[in-house]
Amino acid sequence: MPAPAYSLWSSIARHRRFYLAFFAAAIALRVFFVLKFALIAPDSLVYGDIAKNWLHGVYGLSGAHTPGPAGTPAISGIEPTDIRMPGYPAFLALCFTLFGSEHYHAVMFVNIAIDLLTCFLIADLAIQTVSERAARISFALAATCVMFANYVATPLTEPLAICAAAAVLTFKVRALSEGTERNGWWVMCGVALGFGILLRPDGGILLAALLLYLGWRVLRGNMTLRAAINAAVTVTLVALAPLVPWTIRNWRTMHELQPLAPVYANSPGEFVPRGFIRWQKTWIVDYASVEDIWFHVPGDELSAAALPSRAFDSPQERREVERLFAAYNRDKVMAPELDRQFAALAARRIHAYPLRYYIELPLLRAFDLWVRPHTEMLPLDSHWWQFDQDLHDAIYGTAVGVLGWFYVAAALLALRPGVHVRHAGVFVVFFVLRSAFLASMPNPEQRYMLECFPALLVLAAAGLAGPSRRTDARPEHA
């Protein structure tokens, strides 16, 4: 299959005005979102609190002068924690050191620089896997991507996680293109993977996708077993090495073996309402329900009116849910006994409709993660389809959704004859693994799909660029 005839830098040199125009558009779009839609989310404050306390010597959350988790002493009112991976708190601690404590707007402008780097990484990935023309198209798509610009205006892990995913894929393609057993690009790939895992535990999904793809290349005869093992070992060791001190720290401080952050962000010994969570998974499909129900427990009132009709299989079941919600609303705490009743209800629903729980609902959640508008960080109603309730929010949400659908449709055009995307197998494996993992979670938040967007935009650019041109490529051995 043909390899690229140009490097990204030669493409930029040949099309200076094109890249400069979209570079300026990328800056303008992101600055607009920062100035107009800046949002300090609750999770931002959690990360920020950990970062501030870490600068004072303790990786923890501010609290009372009481013993910390698992009997560990609190230091200056700071309780050690492991509910968040250390990557983003480290990034915020650096920003606070450079720009001042809790200067979140400065963090947003740093996000802009990171997002611009992501645009160039996506273009480089496209020129390595498709063509010079596709590189220009992918740069334009990334520069004008409202989804990317949206999350720049909120101090969360998304801009860094997207950049890390783009870097992993770019370094992987470069390593495979050189075709050597000992390759520094594999080390760089492992470094980017390790950084992604330190940001969020689900960063390891890309590592799994890469290892599966290497195995597939061996089975296809496109790579020797020795080269694949060398690459797999190098990437895995480099990517997982940062977890060693983190795991040791958690063992010594929290007295638990926790190489990653807990699934439900709970401290050791903290009660997790698994019965209530399992009941949610018997009906939840979209992000609107996450806002209506998931985010309300504990502390806020629950309303059965906010539940979709699929949450009930009979009028009797509706009355039971209303009774359980009323019991919760008295104290706004999911007590163990109440959680057991939700667990029993979930068990009955799963027993009655196992295919719905294990197949239908996960597929619907995966579909929703791909097609739902990425507007949860904007001041818009999450029920974007209700035009009769809020016409403005519905129109804007639909417009963002159509843009996402356009990316998916353009990526599907890459399947037509004559369109070649080198190493596209790892993209597909990554899409499948990440979709399956997120669909298994009880909180389908579409922002977690953004790590797939670098690969998605490359495929979209390939589809829009059309069949390969002779001027775009040269023989692979060149």
DSSP E strands, number: 4
Q: What overall geometry do the principal axes of the alpha carbons give?
A: globular
Distance between the termini: 12 Å
Helix content: 55-70%
Number of helices: 20
The major β-sheet equals: 2 strands, antiparallel
What structural class do helix, strand and pairing data support? mainly alpha
- Estimate the mean pLDDT confidence: 89
Radius of gyration: 24 Å
Strand content: under 5%
Order of helices and strands: EHHHEEHHHHHHHHHHHHHHHHHE
Largest sheet: spatial strand order: 1-4
Q: Low-confidence spans: pLDDT under 50, at least 5 residues?
A: 64-75, 473-478
How would you characterize this protein structure?
The chain is mainly alpha-helical. It has 20 helices and 4 strands. Strands 1-4 form a two-stranded antiparallel ribbon. α8 packs antiparallel against α9 and α9 packs parallel to α11. The longest helix has 26 residues. The chain is globular, with a radius of gyration of 24 Å. The C terminus is likely disordered.
Topology record:
Elements: E1 3-4, H1 8-14, H2 16-37, H3 42-55, E2 60-62, E3 78-80, H4 87-99, H5 104-129, H6 132-143, H7 146-152, H8 158-178, H9 184-199, H10 204-219, H11 225-240, H12 243-253, H13 274-281, H14 287-292, H15 315-331, H16 336-352, H17 354-371, H18 391-412, H19 424-439, H20 453-465, E4 473-474
Antiparallel strand pairs: 1-4, 2-3
Helix pairs in contact: 2-5, 2-6, 2-7, 3-4, 4-5, 5-6, 5-8, 5-20, 6-20, 8-9, 9-11, 10-11, 10-19, 13-16, 16-17, 17-19, 18-20
